[in-house]
Write a structure and sequence with these properties.
- The complex is a heterodimer of chains A (114) and B (115).
- In chain A, a hairpin with a 5-residue loop joins strand 5 and strand 6.
- With 114 residues, chain A is mainly beta.
- Chain A is globular and about 40 Å long.
- Chain A contains no helices and 12 strands.
- With 115 residues, chain B is an all-beta fold.
- Chain B is built from no helices and 11 strands.
- In chain B, strands 2, 4, 5, 6, 9, 10 and 11 form a 7-stranded mixed sheet that branches. A 4-stranded antiparallel sheet of chain B has the order 1-3-8-7, with no helix packed on it.
- The chains are: A mainly beta (114), B mainly beta (115).
- At the A-B interface, strand 5, strand 6, strand 10 and strand 11 of A face strand 4, strand 5, strand 9 and strand 10 of B.
Chain lengths: 114, 115
């Protein structure tokens, strides 16, 4: 069975500052890893995904994440945040045998202050 | 491609009533998933379909919950005899199968409030 732990429930940050949202996972099999963003009253939107290959993954809106197998982590980063990045961010994992079921973390609320 | 749509967006019902939600996936996607999201939590998997076949159900899906996808296109999720604990956002997602099945596209959700 897989599980996902997002280490921070809330992250306040000033506009144009860098940010890192932390995610650790556990799994007995190889997995795919994802970050989703959810804006208020909207569904989830895929930010980026790690399937295989390069451990540094670039996504939309200037976000990137690094897969670290030894530390079972998949932290999300952005060098300079904007007010519009204020949202809930979810780390997720699914088995790489078809990926039909995705396990989500509890989410990290990113709050960007002016 | 209009994305995944869900109706209604909001539903308020009294305890004990039955409710039904609808999800229309992206047209070429043959996999469809239902999740439940409560306040402050990530989505929790409920069930998924490949075409019209329901292939897995979570233990979260009690006997009061039933999902169908009769023609392999839209899906419905019914909750019978609703309880206050059923209050949540119900999310639908769809994907391709095989290559690309790892990427799920989510609808905006149906927010259920049971009073």
């Amino acid at each position: 069975a897989q599980s996902v732990t997002q280490l921070d429930s809330q992250v306040p940050v000033f506009e144009e500052a860098p940010v890192e949202l932390r995610c650790n996972y556990s799994s007995s099999v190889s997995v795919y890893l994802f970050w989703y963003v959810q804006y208020p009253n909207q569904g989830l939107q895929l930010l980026l995904k790690y399937l295989s290959g390069s451990t540094l993954v670039k996504g939309i809106n200037g976000f990137e994440a690094e897969f670290n197998k030894s530390q079972t982590s998949f932290h999300l980063r952005k060098p300079s945040v904007h007010i519009s990045d204020t949202a809930e961010y979810f780390c997720a994992v699914s088995q790489n045998t078809g990926g039909f079921k995705t396990i989500f973390g509890a989410g990290t609320r990113l709050f960007v202050k002016a | 491609d209009t994305g995944v749509s869900q109706n209604p967006r909001h539903k308020i019902t009294k305890r004990g009533q039955n409710v039904t939600f609808r999800c229309d996936p992206i047209s070429e996607h043959n996999r469809l998933y239902w999740y439940r999201q409560t306040l402050g939590q990530g989505p929790e998997f409920l069930t998924y379909f490949q075409n019209e076949a329901q292939l897995e159900k979570s233990r979260l899906l009690s006997d009061r919950f039933s999902a169908e996808r009769p023609k392999g296109s839209f899906s419905t999720l019914e909750i019978q005899r609703t309880e206050q604990g059923d209050s949540a956002m119900y999310l639908c997602a769809s994907s391709l199968s095989g290559v690309g099945s790892y990427e799920q596209y989510f609808g905006p959700g149906t927010r259920l409030t049971v009073t």
